Amino acid sequence: MDPTRDNPLLRFNTFWWAVWTFLMFAVLLAAVILFNRKPPSNLEDAAAVARYATKEKLGVAQAAALPAAEIAAAIAKVAAALPAAKPTAVELPEQVVPGSPTAFKLAADTAAPAAAGVSAPPAAGGKNTPTATPPVAPAKP
Amino acid sequence: MSSTSSTAELSDVTLRSGIDRSLRHPVMFFLTSAAAWLAVSILLAIVASVKVHWPQFMDDCEYASYGRVFAAHTNTLIYGWGFQAGFGVLIWLMARMSRQECRAAGTILTAGHVWNLVVSLGTLGLLDGRGTGMPWMEFPAFVWPGLLLCYLTIVVWSFIQFRVRKGERTHVAQWYLLAAMIWFPWIFITANGLLFCASGHPLMAAAINAWFKSALMFLYFIPIALGTAYYLAPKLSGRPIPSTSLARLGFWSLAVVAPWAGMQKLAGSPLSGVFLPYLGAAATALLAIPLVTAAANILRTIFSSEEKLPKSPALHFTLAGLMGLLLLAVAAIALNLPGSSLKLTQFSISGYGFEILALYGCFSFMMFGAVYFIVPRITCSEWVSSRFINMHFFFSVYGIVAIAFGALFGGFIQGSAQEAWLQPWESVTDVVRPYAAVSTFAWCVILFSNIFFFIHLAMMWMGLGRRDSNPILLDSPADMSAPIPQPNP
Predict the structure, then answer these.
(1) Which positions in chain B touch A136 (Cβ < 8 Å)?
(2) Is the Cα dihedral B451, B457, B459, B465 positive or negative?
(3) Distance (Å) from the alpha carbon of B208 to chain A's nearest alpha carbon
(4) Residue B189 near residue A29, CB atoms below 8 Å
(5) Nearest C-alpha neighbor of B397 from the set B313, B298, B304
(6) Which of A23, A26, B25, B329 is most buried, by CB atoms within 10 Å?
(7) ipTM of the complex
């Protein structure tokens, strides 16, 4: 064994070199972060600062207004009430989603009085029953 | 002359016994802790996997919700099992190859206990819903500084041992282990520092997290696995590594390519166009070069002495780990072809299959091989039952093959179903359900296999091993005391 190879001084030196090797990455990262901080330089950056501040305020207000214990207690109550609630019927033509079963039915009802001697069959199961829609063919490129 | 060589051999045996004695408590502590965490992780994996195909399972327990349980499974697998098994193997290998006794066993043991405490707190915090939501970094933010400090305390002594090692030449295994010891602080500090200490764009946070996952796999776990295999293969087969040039190519290509991989997970996102994601995809595909190179080199070593292979438990597991490595190389290419497979597998269970293949199919099998080699040496007793070892081996292989292949192929099917946008989304979940069921069954099989491992390991730690100078399943004890054959120049 080479007597100069293993001695307390070399071990002490190597210990601190190893610690420095590990922490060097933290130091470099800190330097990169510190030297890359810049004040807002354009409108988007300035708006982002205000946006983050608002988000922070919202978070604090929401946490105060919606405590987790109250939400957990309310969930059980709401879950029990939901099955009993009936869905609201669609009243206005503007509320009808194009391509939905209700839209097809409305179109058929509108066309039926114009066509002579043709009556549309009633929809099975009521007007809120979902029916399978035919897939929409993709537009040709 | 012969008395001089036998004196030198006796002195070397005495030195190695001293090294084993000095590391007995830290290594056994790490290995048994790791095995316990592996059992916890597998249990959590089973619960998470069941919830995919049976969502009503434990649905009244908020601590068992899928998001928490799955995150706890992956994090305990990595930080509980992976790191601690890696520590046990790493400190022993570095001490043996440097021919230096450990003088800080107490410090290492204390750091190990603190590591366990920190991981436990992190897991409990995660199950309580305080996770960060970043895959593989889901422990609450207070955990990572503790883990880093423990890591430093555990591995710094291996640096010292390497520095004051006997002999000038370094072994291939030492390159990989030393590199892994240095790469990990870089990866860990960079990712955790940027995500938790510096405010930044949320999209970049996702990109950094994706990079961290890939880097942890390929710059920490895989190098430790390769270093272990490069040590065990020549040691157990009694043959040198055939090609130092190939070993050098494998090492440096891994070092150059692996840091660029990871960001393919954000393909299609508004992340600098396509440059970073496609760079990540290309780097991940190119990782096949170092993986195949290293696997070929080690396999040539093992198969140059085929008669040892059927009898050695360590070689069995090492070979299985190398097969996992080759599969990983193929999967790295197959899953990351931009424009074809990448878009299919990006949001599918293939990613999970790939990770499990790396962490269990490659790394864990190598660690099992190392455990079966190291534990008899530090406990001065032999494994009790070859049947236990066989049960552990075969059921683990069956389980991991089922999970890896199921997830990898299932991911492609899932991706194709996702791309069929004319069909309702529930058709995607219907397609995945059978693969999730297979995964549940496979994890149960792996848990069964590890019960044997844990019992066996616990028996060895309690001093109930077989008092026999002959290794279990090997012919001649003289093979086990041979110095590591040096690679061909």
Answers:
(1) 422
(2) positive
(3) 14
(4) yes
(5) B313
(6) B329
(7) 0.81
